[in-house]
Amino acid sequence: MSHAKLMNNYFDPNSVYTEEDFRRHFRMRRHVFKHLFRDVQHVNPYFRQKRDRAGRLGFSPHQKVTVALRMMAYGSPANSMDETYGMSESTYLDTLEQLCDTIIQVYNDEYLRKPNQEDLKRLIRKAEDRGFPGMIKSLDCMHWDWKNCPTGWQ
Fold first, then answer.
1. What span, in angstroms and rounded, lies between the C-alpha atoms of 19 and 22?
2. Can you tell me the distance from the alpha carbon of 51 to that of 56, in angstroms, rounded to the nearest whole number?
3. Using CA atoms, how far apart are residues 66 and 96, in angstroms rounded to an integer?
């Protein structure tokens, strides 16, 4: 039942939530989720739906990827989504670990590497265009005035 609700809310063609809602809830655009979902499901059999020993269907791939992303996006504890998705705390934690390991495996060479010179030039140009010159040289942004900076960070 939680799979059907999840699909109706976010993934069906006439889903309850709009693209903007999806982005706010998942902290990514729907097409990025779909790309990640497809890659993860292709590489790791954990993210394919299986039957248990009694013949009942287990959690859907959408449920597994969603709970792991929500835990990462919001810093949610594993037991905070029990009633929504019906998984045990250990299943949440296993799912999160599986997703993290798979993301590293799939995207390490392209996205999780140190930036090369071409990447740095592109990032510097983008930062300068947005009014943050020298941002790469000073990632802590200490040179930037923030009038509403919390006093503990000043």
1. 5
2. 5
3. 10
Q: For 60-77, write each residue's pLDDT tens digit.
A: 999 999 999 988 888 887
pLDDT digits (tens, 9 = 90+) for 91-136: 889 999 999 999 999 999 888 888 888 988 888 888 888 887 776 6
List CB contacts of 141: < 8 A, sequence separation 6 or more: 135
Question: In the chain, what's the furthest Cα-to-Cα distance?
Answer: 61
> What does each C-alpha distance from 119 to 105, 107, 113, 130, 139 come to in angstroms?
21, 16, 11, 17, 15
Task: Identify whether the C-beta of residue 54 lies closer than 8 Å to the C-beta of residue 61.
Answer: no
Distance CA 62, CA 95 (A): 11
List all residues 6 or more positions away from 52 whose beta carbon is below 8 Å from its beta carbon. Answer: 58
Phi-psi region for residue 51, left (φ > 0), alpha (ψ -120 to 50) or beta? beta
